[in-house]
Amino acid sequence: MIAPKFALSAGAGAIVYLVLAVAAEGGWAAYVSHPPLVALAVAFLALTAGSFFTNANLSSGEREDRGNRWVLTAFGIIGLISAFVPAYTDRQDFWTFGGETVRWIGVAVFVAGGILRLWPVFVLGRRFSGLVAIQPGHKLVTTGIYSIIRHPSYLGLLINPLGWAIAFRSTIGIILTVLLLIPTIGRIRSEEALLLSQFGSEYEAYRARTSRLIPGIY
What we know:
Layout lengths: L3 H22 L2 H5 L2 H17 L11 E2 L5 H23 L7 H25 L8 E2 L17 H16 L3 H9 L1 H19 L1 H8 L10
Helix pairs in contact: 1-3, 1-4, 3-5, 4-7, 4-8, 5-6, 6-7, 8-9
């Protein structure tokens, strides 16, 4: 099961995220007047609940790249802004696009990204940490989706908020998702450097035959 500290963080984060979105949309009545947004909230809570059944943690393990902790602050700041601003611009009809069909597309993208984010967490088990760290008994996983891309969870991390932005028809939300590339790429580089130092030629060979996020592109 998920570590208590990680569970508290995930649960509190989910509540704050939804409260900000509902407030920005103009309150509960305004929010639930859009069925896709209700589905978005249900999906968000379901994915959060699903994370409680993983072994995700915040352990620094045997060795951690502490210099990479800045990305957690960046993720947090962009995340809070993304919770509020897309819903607010939706209510103000500022830089918005499409209608209810677009909202449903956003919900589908959000769910797909959430599943892609969560699935590798189940695969990695206790090796998955919110920090860039080598865990006790750490071994490379190179099968399944990891045989194609090295960072499927980070791809899900980008697709998930993109779906959120689309559900609120928010151009600014999409821009915020693009900004997530900065800490995400920083995180990937730090993680790959640590894994290379730990596993040497084994990781070098794995890296040579796979892509980081998008097969054949990056």
